[in-house]
What we know:
This protein is α/β, with parallel strands linked by helices. It is built from 4 helices and 7 strands, in the order H-E-H-E-E-H-E-H-E-E-E. The protein has one domain (2-156): Cytidine Deaminase, domain 2 (3-Layer(aba) Sandwich), CATH 3.40.140. A hairpin with a 2-residue loop joins strand 6 and strand 7 (148-156). The radius of gyration is 15 Å and the shape is globular.
Amino acid sequence: MQRAIVESERAALRHRHRAVMEPTEQIVIPPQIHHAMIEHARFCYPEEACGLIAMDEAGELRMVYATTNVDRSRVRFTVAPREHYGAIKHAERQGWTVAGSFHSHPESAAFPSGRDIAGALDPEWLYFIVGLGDEMPDVRAFRIRDYRVVEVAHREAS
């Protein structure tokens, strides 16, 4: 099992240079969601923060669920299972779906690592990364399909 994970991460690293910007897709991030992701990343520093994102049927971001990283690691994350389930149940009650996740890179840029790429199991999900490696936090969004990283253009709602 461990060998399969390592091989998957190596494959992801070989494809890392394939990141492109998807000009046809743009997401609007409500300021409270943008702020919540950054603050959760700062709170969890120096470990990786993680959480889930809920969207409505129109594809608008509705809720960020700041969750516990059960790995308590600087380089990987796992959303606490009970919190994951709770987010799904809450989203469903609102008529939303959990359609993405976010995590932080405490010491580096907001770009998927080989481990992030290898662990991206749902090609329809939005994957947000909060980079804390610079003075100003950077939030970027991606779709990851078959080890191909596509950056999704985004802007903060006014």
